Amino acid sequence: MAYEVGVIGVGAMGEPMAAALLRAGCTVSVCAHRDRAPVERLVAAGAHDGGDPAGVARASAFVITVVPDAPQVEEALFGEHGAAHGAKPGTLFIDMSTISPVATRGFDERLRAGGFRFVDAPVSGGPARAKSGTLTIIVGASDDDFIAAKPVLEAMGTPNHVGGVGMGEVVKLVNQVIISSVMLANAEALTFAAKAGADVDAVLAVIASATGSNYLLQNWIPNSWLAGSHAPGFALDLLRKDLAAALDSARTMGVPMPASALAYQMYTAASGEGHGRDDYTSVATFYERAAGVRVRKKTT
Fold this sequence. Notes:
There is one protein chain. By secondary structure, the protein is an alpha/beta fold. It has two domains: 4-165, NAD(P)-binding Rossmann-like Domain (Rossmann fold), CATH 3.40.50.720; 170-291, N-(1-d-carboxylethyl)-l-norvaline Dehydrogenase, domain 2, CATH 1.10.1040. The protein has helices at residues 14-23, 37-44, 53-58, 70-78, 101-113, 126-132, 143-154, 167-195, 200-207, 215-220, 236-253, 258-275, 284-291; strands spanning 4-8, 27-31, 48-49, 62-65, 92-95, 117-120, 123-124, 135-140, 157-163. Helix 1 runs parallel beside helix 6, helix 8 crosses helix 11 and helix 11 packs antiparallel against helix 12 (258-275).
């Protein structure tokens, strides 16, 4: 795959995504944001150090941004050393951050006015699936831009075209709305079970084939919270940021989202207790403390 791809934002997700592009045969340019260590690791693996976003864009036909929120996308694209200042006409920008669809469409308009193309392609799967190149990629794009971006995206996972620009972010926020409340339901249910004296392993085994089964309960929680760890998988503050974007969008559309509003407050409380950088399973500490019980698997 002889594509020239720039990656701006080589953090917990961006670094393994850039590594997947290298494995696929792309020529990859990267630049440091706060921490140079990921850049140095990627350069050792064959990437080029573009110096800054403009430098990355000068060397790339495709420019990927993977940063926390809309202000960071703004800076990466249009800041003093932003990618738009170095990109060649026709460059295809791919924002793989999770941000507001309103901000996404604004970036699209500004980039197209400068002679560029734009795709929003947020992802689901976390760092583990970024490392294996098996992310679920949710793409908002015109038909032509999706066809152009697809080979690059396939190096990192499975791209799913869900509509025009901005719709990738909408569908990603749908996912975040669901997982935020499902996580709370799992925490409540398992804390209830443990307090009642149930065998947590037996509960997991039964629910796996019952109507309460869900991906988080079977694949995420057993390897984090129930194993006694809230080591970062998907940071709680990132989910809280995504919920805020969903709630803001819902407010403009007049869509009531009371469950998501409650979830936002629960994650905000957990963040205030110092869990913002922990995995979002750390919201379970509230339930454990209130019930006076620790919820753990017996098996590992």
